[in-house]
Design a protein that fits this description.
The structure holds two protein chains of two kinds.
Chain A: H1 2-39, H2 51-66, H3 69-78, E1 81-84, E2 102-105, E3 111-115, E4 120-128, H4 143-164, E5 166-168, H5 176-212
Antiparallel strand pairs in A: 1-2, 2-3, 3-4, 4-5
Helix pairs in contact in A: 2-4
Chain B: H1 18-33, E1 36-43, E2 49-54, E3 68-71, E4 74-75
Antiparallel strand pairs in B: 1-2, 1-3
Classes of the chains: A alpha+beta, B alpha+beta.
Amino acid sequence: MVVALSATAIVVLALLWEISMPWIDRRLEARRLRRELRRAGHPDAAYDPGRERRAEQRARELLKSCVNEEEWAMYRDLGFLRVWGGQSDPEGPSDLRGVDYAYLVYPHKPIVAYLPQTGRLLNEYCVEFPDETRPYGSPRLPDSDDVLAKWMALQGDERRIISEANLHLPGRQIDPRQIQRDLWRLGRWERERLARALRAGADAPQLAEPADG
Amino acid sequence: MRPGFGEQLIAEGDVEVAEEEQALIDEFRRQLDLGMWAAVPTTRSDGRREAEMIRGFDEIPHDTSRVIFFPRAAGGAA
């Protein structure tokens, strides 16, 4: 009995050893690389737990400095951006002749194309910006940088980023109910924003009247 | 933009100074060779902000103050 249990334990240990060896190898290799970088005085070498938080903070500032004020407020308040599509040429070859369409841009999620007039979802475009310089740093851009990269690519060369993306029907990665909820939130957010702007516009002349009079 | 780090200054200089312009051109090419995309935030005459993708140093608008490099897009989560 004892012999059988011992033999089983030895087999289990041997299997665990086989399974964990590649992982241990990778950890040791990464550690060795970090030590070499630290010795060479490379700034990326030391692990810094606050690095990604600071990176996201910088990314938000960069995004704010690039997009329109309305888009920044949308991202800040709702967590996504709407970017209008530019390929709905009335004379164009696509199905969208003259029909306005837009994209919802989420951090680290597919770009979702939809028709704002009806709320109909068109496609999901799965796209990412992979780090070519691994193993250093995180393989992902900070959230706001990911949004900015998508925004710039859609603004600057919509066809190119759409052609690079993997095209899927809606619902592949993002629940269509969540998107419909986000579209509803966006509509309400825009109405409230418009109402605030109208109120501010109505208040401004009243405040100015005494000075004029 | 760099994964895990966010925005980092890669190079800066004055294009009116020949040496600095050459350094900027070299860095621009190096970034594209690394597989990065380059974009320039722009502002239309009506104040609307947009972006232009840049493929060559000579495409950079003269009035721009920065070029943003970010990793090339690839299809994800197939």
